[in-house]
UniProtKB/TrEMBL annotation:
This is Diaminopropionate ammonia-lyase. GO terms for biological process: alpha-amino acid metabolic process. Its EC number is 4.3.1.15. It is an enzyme of class 4 (lyase). InterPro entries: DiNH2opropionate_NH3_lyase, TrpB-like_PALP, TrpB-like_PALP_sf. Pfam families: PALP (PF00291). It comes from the Bacteria. One of its GO terms (molecular function) is pyridoxal phosphate binding. NCBIfam families: diampropi_NH3ly, PRK08206.1. The keyword Transcription regulation does not apply. Residues 49-367 form the Tryptophan synthase beta chain-like PALP domain. Keywords: Lyase, Pyridoxal phosphate.
Length: 402
């Protein structure tokens, strides 16, 4: 554990955090517990739905002198390997339902109706598209394949061949874009506009908020599962969650805010120090776009800009922002792969636990965040070995042998 104590970490108290503000008093509520209930009801009917495990990490809790650490292990979500399976595929489903209902006048269509093939002729005329670092694209492609529409996925230059192959396996057409993630987002939006495709984006921009909010509503099902799995008298005192564009962190914070109001846990948003767009946004109090390529090993967190609706939520509901180096993720992956209680965590997947491990051994930061021997900490293991080759290179062992 000692190596973590020497890693560089930046820590910022959210200057705009507002515990006094009621969830209903926001000018706009992008997510809701009733939306979570609707997504939960739908996703529970999908044939391969299973809640993912909530793992307790007692040895690490003892090492860090904390009461409890939980790790929501998304490595086997829908067989896709990440929590993202809950968002993009759910949004594709909802878009196709709207399309078919408008075309046929039917109401209350379900996944079973679409899967029956009865509406294939209609859904085949639809094309969904998105830009991705990997996992979101896999979710959208999987949703498109299941529910019967065409799918075109945009990848930037830094996305590995392994991630590309994993998306293409769901029948998506792949387009490589020169430049960084933000360049691929721009290209997907332009092409969607030009061809009349549905842009199933996980990042909101002004004028493009509806579908990203459905994607994020899908993520809240993971949070609801956690509180179904936890003993009711053992609510977390702290929640660490990683951010790329901030959609996941905002989904977590919105859920906690609406459900527990001012009594919600302390929330800590964790980012790679090479792609800390949410941190920069919080620091400047307004949306900031980072220059450069945000080249981090935590590839799925590589983004230079924050989703607008994610920031709308995080602005008042998140308490802290921290940044960690790539090395923290690698050390955490190795730590989790230890034979005593092995867990397969991917580079971006372990980031929130890496954030806890990085701050957890420094008395100054512990004190600031209120981490004590009675703290119960929830972290999100958002992906498994979604690129098995990279995993093997970093851990020196195949994920299959963990
Ligand atoms: C595994 C994993 N974890 C976390 C995130 C971060 O989610 P967001 O971009 O919504 O902040 C992503 C995004 O793709 C991801 O793939």
């Amino acid at each position: 554990m000692t190596p973590f104590a020497n890693l560089p970490v930046a820590c910022l108290r959210n200057p705009q955090a507002r515990r006094d503000l009621a969830y209903d008093d926001q000018p706009q509520q992008w997510l809701s517990l009733s939306g979570t209930a609707a997504a939960w009801a739908e996703l529970h009917q999908w044939s391969n739905y299973q809640p993912t495990p909530l793992r307790s990490l007692p040895e690490i809790a003892t090492d860090l002198d904390l009461d409890q650490i939980w790790y929501k292990d998304e490595s086997d979500r829908f067989g896709l390997g990440s929590f993202k399976a809950l968002g993009g595929a759910y949004a594709v489903f909802r878009q196709l339902v709207d399309y078919v209902q408008t075309a046929t006048g039917q109401t209350d269509l379900t996944a079973a109706d679409l899967l029956s093939g009865r509406y294939r002729e209609l859904t085949q005329a639809v094309t969904v598209t998105t830009a991705t670092d990997g996992n979101h694209g896999r979710s959208v492609a999987w949703g498109a394949q299941q529910f019967g529409c065409r799918c075109v996925i945009y990848l930037h230059a830094g996305v590995s061949a392994g991630r590309e192959a994993a998306i293409a396996a769901y029948g998506a057409e792949m387009v490589r874009v020169a430049g960084n993630y933000d360049d691929s987002v721009r290209q997907a939006a332009e092409d969607a506009q030009a061809h009349g495709w549905i842009l199933v984006s996980d990042t909101a921009h002004p004028g493009n908020t509806t579908i990203p909010s459905v994607v994020m509503q899908g993520y809240t099902v993971m949070v609801a599962e956690v509180f179904d799995q936890l003993p009711p008298d053992q609510l977390p005192t702290h929640v660490f969650v990683q951010a790329g564009v901030g959609g996941l962190a905002a989904a977590v914070c919105a859920y906690l805010w609406e459900r527990w109001g001012r009594d919600r846990p302390t929330t800590i948003v964790v980012e790679p120090d090479r792609a800390a767009c949410v941190y920069a946004t919080a620091q400047q109090g307004k949306l900031v776009t980072l220059e450069g390529d945000q080249d981090t090993l935590m590839a799925c967190l590589s983004s230079g800009h924050t989703s607008t609706i994610a920031w709308d939520i995080l602005r008042h509901s998140s308490d802290w922002f921290i940044t960690i180096p790539d090395e923290a993720a690698v050390l955490t992956m190795q730590h989790l792969a230890h034979p005593r209680s092995p867990i397969v965590g991917g580079e971006s997947g372990v980031a929130s636990l890496a954030g806890l491990l990085t701050v957890g051994q420094r008395s100054d930061l512990r004190q600031q965040l209120g981490l004590t021997t009675t703290s119960r900490v929830l972290t999100f293991g958002t992906e498994g070995a979604t690129d098995p080759e990279i995993y093997q290179k970093l851990i020196n062992r195949s994920a299959l042998h963990i």
